[in-house]
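Q: My labmate handed me this sequence with no annotations at all. I'd like to see what the chain might look like in three dimensions before we decide whether it's worth expressing. Could you predict it?
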Amino acid sequence: KYFDFFVGAVADGLGRVGLEANPATLGLLVPWGVSFYTLHALSYTIDVYRRDAEATTDVLSFAVFVAYFPQLLAGPLTRIRPMLPQFQHLPRRLDPIRRAEGFELILLGLFQKVAVADALTPLTRTVFVDQTVGPEPAQNPVLLVIGAFAGAAQFVLDFAGYTNIARGTSKLLGIELPYNFREPLTRSRNLQDYWRRHNITLMGWFRDYVYRPLRRRSSSTVRSSLLLVFIFFLSGLWHGANWGWVLWGIVTGVAVQTEILVNRARDRSRRREGRPARRRRSPAMRVLGPLYASGVLAATIVLVRAPTIAAALEYYQAILRPTWVPLDWDLVLLAGYALVAICVADWREHRMELAEGKADPPTIPRMALWGAMVVLIIIYSGTAAQPFVYFQF
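A: Here is what I predict for the chain of 393 residues:
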Protein backbone atom coordinates (compact mmCIF):
# COMPACT_ATOMS: atom_id res chain seq x y z
CA LYS A 1 0.00 0.00 0.00
CA TYR A 2 2.78 2.44 0.91
CA PHE A 3 5.71 1.24 -1.20
CA ASP A 4 4.95 3.34 -4.29
CA PHE A 5 4.29 6.45 -2.17
CA PHE A 6 7.57 6.24 -0.26
CA VAL A 7 9.60 5.38 -3.36
CA GLY A 8 8.05 8.31 -5.20
CA ALA A 9 8.73 10.64 -2.26
CA VAL A 10 12.40 9.60 -2.17
CA ALA A 11 12.70 10.09 -5.93
CA ASP A 12 11.14 13.57 -5.68
CA GLY A 13 13.55 14.46 -2.89
CA LEU A 14 16.55 13.34 -4.90
CA GLY A 15 15.28 15.28 -7.92
CA ARG A 16 15.18 18.49 -5.90
CA VAL A 17 18.90 18.22 -5.15
CA GLY A 18 19.80 17.45 -8.77
CA LEU A 19 19.94 13.67 -8.58
CA GLU A 20 17.81 11.94 -11.17
CA ALA A 21 16.05 8.76 -10.08
CA ASN A 22 13.76 6.40 -11.95
CA PRO A 23 12.00 4.49 -9.17
CA ALA A 24 10.49 1.08 -9.82
CA THR A 25 6.92 1.07 -8.53
CA LEU A 26 4.82 -2.01 -7.88
CA GLY A 27 1.48 -0.64 -9.03
CA LEU A 28 -0.38 -3.18 -6.91
CA LEU A 29 -4.13 -3.13 -6.39
CA VAL A 30 -4.76 -2.69 -2.66
CA PRO A 31 -7.39 -5.11 -1.28
CA TRP A 32 -10.45 -3.46 0.25
CA GLY A 33 -10.20 -3.10 4.02
CA VAL A 34 -6.53 -4.13 4.19
CA SER A 35 -5.75 -1.58 6.92
CA PHE A 36 -8.59 -2.80 9.13
CA TYR A 37 -7.77 -6.48 9.27
CA THR A 38 -4.05 -5.69 9.51
CA LEU A 39 -4.66 -3.64 12.67
CA HIS A 40 -6.91 -6.41 14.03
CA ALA A 41 -4.14 -8.97 13.64
CA LEU A 42 -1.57 -6.57 15.11
CA SER A 43 -3.70 -5.80 18.16
CA TYR A 44 -4.05 -9.51 18.93
CA THR A 45 -0.30 -10.10 18.58
CA ILE A 46 0.57 -7.13 20.80
CA ASP A 47 -2.04 -8.01 23.45
CA VAL A 48 -0.70 -11.56 23.68
CA TYR A 49 2.89 -10.28 23.88
CA ARG A 50 1.94 -7.88 26.68
CA ARG A 51 -0.08 -10.63 28.39
CA ASP A 52 -3.18 -8.49 28.18
CA ALA A 53 -4.86 -11.43 26.45
CA GLU A 54 -4.25 -15.16 26.26
CA ALA A 55 -3.22 -16.77 23.01
CA THR A 56 -6.13 -18.74 21.63
CA THR A 57 -5.99 -22.22 20.14
CA ASP A 58 -9.42 -21.76 18.59
CA VAL A 59 -8.34 -21.13 15.01
CA LEU A 60 -11.88 -20.70 13.70
CA SER A 61 -12.82 -18.03 16.27
CA PHE A 62 -9.55 -16.19 15.65
CA ALA A 63 -10.19 -16.23 11.89
CA VAL A 64 -13.67 -14.83 12.50
CA PHE A 65 -12.19 -12.12 14.74
CA VAL A 66 -9.82 -10.98 11.98
CA ALA A 67 -12.24 -11.38 9.07
CA TYR A 68 -15.68 -10.86 10.64
CA PHE A 69 -17.69 -9.80 7.59
CA PRO A 70 -19.73 -6.79 8.86
CA GLN A 71 -16.58 -5.00 10.01
CA LEU A 72 -14.01 -6.48 7.62
CA LEU A 73 -14.01 -3.66 5.06
CA ALA A 74 -14.44 -0.56 7.23
CA GLY A 75 -14.39 -1.43 10.92
CA PRO A 76 -15.03 -0.60 13.67
CA LEU A 77 -11.77 -1.96 15.05
CA THR A 78 -12.17 -4.45 17.88
CA ARG A 79 -9.96 -6.21 20.43
CA ILE A 80 -9.65 -9.94 21.02
CA ARG A 81 -10.72 -10.00 24.69
CA PRO A 82 -14.29 -8.70 24.31
CA MET A 83 -14.88 -10.33 20.92
CA LEU A 84 -13.57 -13.89 21.25
CA PRO A 85 -16.10 -14.98 23.94
CA GLN A 86 -18.93 -13.59 21.79
CA PHE A 87 -17.85 -15.65 18.78
CA GLN A 88 -17.44 -18.77 20.91
CA HIS A 89 -20.77 -18.46 22.72
CA LEU A 90 -23.35 -17.11 20.30
CA PRO A 91 -26.87 -16.81 21.74
CA ARG A 92 -29.31 -19.47 20.56
CA ARG A 93 -32.18 -17.00 20.58
CA LEU A 94 -32.11 -13.28 19.97
CA ASP A 95 -33.98 -11.13 22.46
CA PRO A 96 -36.51 -8.70 20.93
CA ILE A 97 -34.76 -5.60 22.34
CA ARG A 98 -31.49 -6.40 20.60
CA ARG A 99 -33.34 -7.30 17.40
CA ALA A 100 -35.20 -3.97 17.37
CA GLU A 101 -31.96 -2.08 18.04
CA GLY A 102 -30.28 -3.92 15.18
CA PHE A 103 -32.96 -3.07 12.63
CA GLU A 104 -33.06 0.60 13.64
CA LEU A 105 -29.27 0.90 13.51
CA ILE A 106 -29.29 -0.51 9.98
CA LEU A 107 -32.01 1.96 8.97
CA LEU A 108 -30.13 4.85 10.58
CA GLY A 109 -26.87 3.83 8.91
CA LEU A 110 -28.51 3.60 5.48
CA PHE A 111 -30.06 7.02 6.04
CA GLN A 112 -26.72 8.57 7.02
CA LYS A 113 -24.94 6.98 4.06
CA VAL A 114 -27.51 7.23 1.25
CA ALA A 115 -29.79 10.12 2.20
CA VAL A 116 -27.09 12.41 3.63
CA ALA A 117 -23.53 11.51 2.56
CA ASP A 118 -24.43 10.40 -0.97
CA ALA A 119 -27.05 13.12 -1.32
CA LEU A 120 -24.29 15.71 -0.90
CA THR A 121 -22.39 14.36 -3.92
CA PRO A 122 -23.68 17.01 -6.39
CA LEU A 123 -22.40 19.75 -4.07
CA THR A 124 -19.02 18.19 -3.30
CA ARG A 125 -18.48 17.22 -6.94
CA THR A 126 -19.19 20.81 -8.00
CA VAL A 127 -16.66 22.38 -5.63
CA PHE A 128 -13.96 19.69 -5.58
CA VAL A 129 -14.10 18.10 -9.05
CA ASP A 130 -15.88 20.36 -11.53
CA GLN A 131 -14.45 23.54 -10.00
CA THR A 132 -11.49 24.97 -11.96
CA VAL A 133 -9.95 27.68 -9.84
CA GLY A 134 -8.21 30.41 -11.79
CA PRO A 135 -8.27 34.19 -12.25
CA GLU A 136 -12.06 33.91 -12.48
CA PRO A 137 -13.25 31.30 -9.97
CA ALA A 138 -15.93 28.96 -11.26
CA GLN A 139 -17.95 29.08 -8.03
CA ASN A 140 -19.11 31.60 -5.48
CA PRO A 141 -16.73 31.81 -2.47
CA VAL A 142 -19.69 31.25 -0.14
CA LEU A 143 -20.48 28.04 -1.99
CA LEU A 144 -16.85 26.95 -1.62
CA VAL A 145 -17.13 27.39 2.16
CA ILE A 146 -20.41 25.48 2.21
CA GLY A 147 -18.80 22.83 0.00
CA ALA A 148 -15.92 22.39 2.45
CA PHE A 149 -18.41 21.78 5.27
CA ALA A 150 -20.30 19.38 2.99
CA GLY A 151 -17.07 17.52 2.27
CA ALA A 152 -16.44 17.19 6.01
CA ALA A 153 -19.99 15.96 6.63
CA GLN A 154 -19.69 13.47 3.79
CA PHE A 155 -16.40 12.20 5.23
CA VAL A 156 -18.03 11.61 8.63
CA LEU A 157 -21.48 10.35 7.61
CA ASP A 158 -20.18 7.88 5.03
CA PHE A 159 -18.15 6.11 7.71
CA ALA A 160 -20.66 6.57 10.54
CA GLY A 161 -23.37 5.12 8.31
CA TYR A 162 -21.31 2.03 7.52
CA THR A 163 -20.46 1.59 11.21
CA ASN A 164 -24.12 1.69 12.22
CA ILE A 165 -25.00 -0.83 9.50
CA ALA A 166 -22.20 -3.11 10.75
CA ARG A 167 -23.28 -2.71 14.38
CA GLY A 168 -26.93 -3.31 13.50
CA THR A 169 -26.14 -6.41 11.43
CA SER A 170 -24.01 -7.73 14.28
CA LYS A 171 -26.80 -7.22 16.80
CA LEU A 172 -29.04 -9.39 14.61
CA LEU A 173 -26.33 -12.08 14.82
CA GLY A 174 -25.99 -11.72 18.60
CA ILE A 175 -22.66 -9.84 18.43
CA GLU A 176 -22.00 -6.46 20.07
CA LEU A 177 -19.53 -4.20 18.26
CA PRO A 178 -18.11 -1.09 19.95
CA TYR A 179 -19.29 2.44 19.26
CA ASN A 180 -17.18 4.18 16.64
CA PHE A 181 -18.99 7.53 16.38
CA ARG A 182 -20.87 9.51 19.02
CA GLU A 183 -22.41 12.38 17.06
CA PRO A 184 -19.14 14.32 16.50
CA LEU A 185 -20.70 16.88 14.15
CA THR A 186 -23.44 18.03 16.53
CA ARG A 187 -22.32 17.28 20.09
CA SER A 188 -18.59 18.09 20.20
CA ARG A 189 -17.55 20.64 22.83
CA ASN A 190 -14.29 21.46 21.07
CA LEU A 191 -11.71 19.90 18.76
CA GLN A 192 -10.40 17.52 21.42
CA ASP A 193 -13.90 16.30 22.16
CA TYR A 194 -14.53 15.91 18.44
CA TRP A 195 -11.68 13.40 18.18
CA ARG A 196 -13.01 11.52 21.20
CA ARG A 197 -16.21 11.00 19.21
CA HIS A 198 -14.89 10.45 15.66
CA ASN A 199 -13.49 7.04 14.62
CA ILE A 200 -13.19 6.13 18.30
CA THR A 201 -11.75 2.67 17.77
CA LEU A 202 -8.96 3.80 15.42
CA MET A 203 -7.87 6.65 17.69
CA GLY A 204 -8.05 4.23 20.63
CA TRP A 205 -5.81 1.80 18.74
CA PHE A 206 -3.15 4.44 18.13
CA ARG A 207 -3.48 5.64 21.75
CA ASP A 208 -2.99 2.18 23.30
CA TYR A 209 -0.41 0.72 20.93
CA VAL A 210 1.63 3.77 19.89
CA TYR A 211 1.06 6.89 22.02
CA ARG A 212 1.10 5.43 25.54
CA PRO A 213 4.10 3.11 25.06
CA LEU A 214 6.17 5.97 23.65
CA ARG A 215 4.96 8.47 26.26
CA ARG A 216 6.02 6.23 29.16
CA ARG A 217 9.65 7.00 28.33
CA SER A 218 9.14 10.69 29.05
CA SER A 219 6.21 12.77 30.25
CA SER A 220 7.60 16.15 29.17
CA THR A 221 5.19 18.58 27.54
CA VAL A 222 7.31 18.84 24.41
CA ARG A 223 7.48 15.07 23.97
CA SER A 224 3.75 14.66 24.60
CA SER A 225 2.97 17.41 22.09
CA LEU A 226 5.17 15.90 19.40
CA LEU A 227 3.74 12.44 20.07
CA LEU A 228 0.19 13.69 19.61
CA VAL A 229 1.07 15.30 16.28
CA PHE A 230 2.81 12.05 15.32
CA ILE A 231 -0.34 10.06 16.11
CA PHE A 232 -2.41 12.25 13.80
CA PHE A 233 0.33 11.98 11.17
CA LEU A 234 0.00 8.18 11.40
CA SER A 235 -3.77 8.50 11.21
CA GLY A 236 -3.47 10.52 8.03
CA LEU A 237 -0.98 8.07 6.52
CA TRP A 238 -3.29 5.19 7.49
CA HIS A 239 -6.14 6.84 5.60
CA GLY A 240 -4.19 7.28 2.40
CA ALA A 241 -0.67 7.01 1.01
CA ASN A 242 -0.48 10.53 -0.43
CA TRP A 243 0.67 13.98 0.63
CA GLY A 244 -2.86 15.26 1.08
CA TRP A 245 -3.56 12.83 3.90
CA VAL A 246 -0.11 13.36 5.40
CA LEU A 247 -0.67 17.13 5.58
CA TRP A 248 -4.19 16.58 6.88
CA GLY A 249 -2.81 14.52 9.76
CA ILE A 250 -0.05 16.99 10.64
CA VAL A 251 -2.29 20.08 10.47
CA THR A 252 -5.02 18.37 12.52
CA GLY A 253 -2.52 17.21 15.11
CA VAL A 254 -1.04 20.70 15.46
CA ALA A 255 -4.55 22.18 15.81
CA VAL A 256 -5.55 19.69 18.52
CA GLN A 257 -2.30 20.14 20.45
CA THR A 258 -2.57 23.93 20.22
CA GLU A 259 -6.06 23.74 21.69
CA ILE A 260 -4.80 21.54 24.53
CA LEU A 261 -2.02 24.00 25.42
CA VAL A 262 -4.37 26.99 25.23
CA ASN A 263 -6.92 25.26 27.48
CA ARG A 264 -4.24 24.35 30.02
CA ALA A 265 -2.99 27.94 30.15
CA ARG A 266 -6.54 29.24 30.55
CA ASP A 267 -7.28 26.75 33.34
CA ARG A 268 -4.10 27.71 35.22
CA SER A 269 -5.04 31.37 34.93
CA ARG A 270 -8.55 30.72 36.26
CA ARG A 271 -7.20 28.71 39.21
CA ARG A 272 -4.79 31.52 40.13
CA GLU A 273 -7.77 33.87 40.18
CA GLY A 274 -9.67 31.51 42.47
CA ARG A 275 -12.24 30.58 39.85
CA PRO A 276 -13.16 27.04 38.77
CA ALA A 277 -11.05 25.78 35.89
CA ARG A 278 -14.07 24.54 33.97
CA ARG A 279 -17.30 26.39 33.44
CA ARG A 280 -20.69 24.93 32.69
CA ARG A 281 -21.45 24.71 29.02
CA SER A 282 -23.66 27.61 27.95
CA PRO A 283 -26.42 27.23 25.33
CA ALA A 284 -24.32 29.31 22.93
CA MET A 285 -21.36 26.94 23.28
CA ARG A 286 -23.62 23.99 22.47
CA VAL A 287 -23.85 25.54 19.01
CA LEU A 288 -20.43 27.18 18.73
CA GLY A 289 -18.51 24.11 19.94
CA PRO A 290 -19.68 21.77 17.15
CA LEU A 291 -19.45 24.61 14.63
CA TYR A 292 -15.83 25.30 15.57
CA ALA A 293 -14.83 21.62 15.49
CA SER A 294 -16.63 21.04 12.19
CA GLY A 295 -15.03 24.20 10.80
CA VAL A 296 -11.53 22.90 11.50
CA LEU A 297 -12.43 19.58 9.87
CA ALA A 298 -13.91 21.41 6.87
CA ALA A 299 -10.76 23.53 6.49
CA THR A 300 -8.48 20.49 6.58
CA ILE A 301 -10.64 18.14 4.50
CA VAL A 302 -9.93 20.34 1.46
CA LEU A 303 -6.38 18.95 1.54
CA VAL A 304 -7.66 15.46 0.77
CA ARG A 305 -10.74 16.21 -1.30
CA ALA A 306 -8.93 18.47 -3.78
CA PRO A 307 -7.10 16.56 -6.55
CA THR A 308 -3.67 17.92 -5.57
CA ILE A 309 -2.07 20.04 -2.86
CA ALA A 310 -1.76 22.87 -5.39
CA ALA A 311 -5.48 22.62 -6.12
CA ALA A 312 -6.21 22.73 -2.38
CA LEU A 313 -4.16 25.93 -2.00
CA GLU A 314 -6.02 27.45 -4.94
CA TYR A 315 -9.29 26.45 -3.27
CA TYR A 316 -8.33 28.43 -0.15
CA GLN A 317 -7.30 31.39 -2.30
CA ALA A 318 -10.61 31.31 -4.18
CA ILE A 319 -12.50 31.58 -0.88
CA LEU A 320 -10.56 34.73 0.00
CA ARG A 321 -10.83 36.39 -3.41
CA PRO A 322 -13.26 39.35 -3.54
CA THR A 323 -14.58 38.14 -6.91
CA TRP A 324 -18.28 37.44 -6.79
CA VAL A 325 -20.22 35.06 -9.04
CA PRO A 326 -23.87 33.97 -8.87
CA LEU A 327 -24.71 31.58 -6.06
CA ASP A 328 -26.20 28.21 -7.01
CA TRP A 329 -29.23 28.19 -4.73
CA ASP A 330 -30.12 24.58 -5.54
CA LEU A 331 -26.85 23.48 -3.96
CA VAL A 332 -27.37 25.81 -0.99
CA LEU A 333 -30.80 24.26 -0.40
CA LEU A 334 -29.21 20.81 -0.65
CA ALA A 335 -26.75 21.80 2.07
CA GLY A 336 -29.63 23.08 4.20
CA TYR A 337 -31.47 19.78 3.81
CA ALA A 338 -28.30 17.88 4.79
CA LEU A 339 -27.85 20.04 7.90
CA VAL A 340 -31.39 19.27 9.09
CA ALA A 341 -30.96 15.58 8.26
CA ILE A 342 -27.68 15.40 10.21
CA CYS A 343 -29.24 17.03 13.27
CA VAL A 344 -32.24 14.68 13.19
CA ALA A 345 -30.08 11.58 12.66
CA ASP A 346 -27.68 12.54 15.46
CA TRP A 347 -30.58 13.32 17.80
CA ARG A 348 -32.11 9.91 17.16
CA GLU A 349 -28.77 8.14 17.50
CA HIS A 350 -28.17 9.82 20.86
CA ARG A 351 -31.63 8.75 22.05
CA MET A 352 -30.83 5.20 20.98
CA GLU A 353 -27.59 5.27 22.97
CA LEU A 354 -29.46 6.36 26.10
CA ALA A 355 -32.06 3.61 25.68
CA GLU A 356 -29.68 0.81 24.67
CA GLY A 357 -30.56 -2.50 26.29
CA LYS A 358 -33.89 -1.19 27.59
CA ALA A 359 -37.41 -1.78 26.35
CA ASP A 360 -38.25 1.20 24.14
CA PRO A 361 -41.64 0.67 22.49
CA PRO A 362 -42.11 2.55 19.19
CA THR A 363 -44.17 5.72 19.25
CA ILE A 364 -46.15 7.33 16.43
CA PRO A 365 -43.60 10.18 15.94
CA ARG A 366 -40.76 7.66 15.81
CA MET A 367 -42.56 5.48 13.27
CA ALA A 368 -43.20 8.60 11.20
CA LEU A 369 -39.46 9.34 11.36
CA TRP A 370 -38.67 5.80 10.21
CA GLY A 371 -41.09 6.22 7.32
CA ALA A 372 -39.50 9.51 6.29
CA MET A 373 -36.05 7.91 6.42
CA VAL A 374 -37.18 5.03 4.19
CA VAL A 375 -38.68 7.45 1.65
CA LEU A 376 -35.51 9.56 1.53
CA ILE A 377 -33.32 6.47 1.20
CA ILE A 378 -35.41 5.33 -1.78
CA ILE A 379 -35.27 8.79 -3.37
CA TYR A 380 -31.50 9.16 -3.13
CA SER A 381 -30.52 5.53 -3.68
CA GLY A 382 -31.25 5.73 -7.40
CA THR A 383 -29.61 9.06 -8.18
CA ALA A 384 -26.64 9.64 -5.90
CA ALA A 385 -25.54 6.25 -4.54
CA GLN A 386 -21.76 6.01 -4.13
CA PRO A 387 -19.44 3.24 -2.83
CA PHE A 388 -18.32 3.53 0.78
CA VAL A 389 -15.28 5.79 0.98
CA TYR A 390 -13.62 3.77 3.76
CA PHE A 391 -13.53 0.58 1.68
CA GLN A 392 -10.36 1.97 0.06
CA PHE A 393 -8.57 2.17 3.42
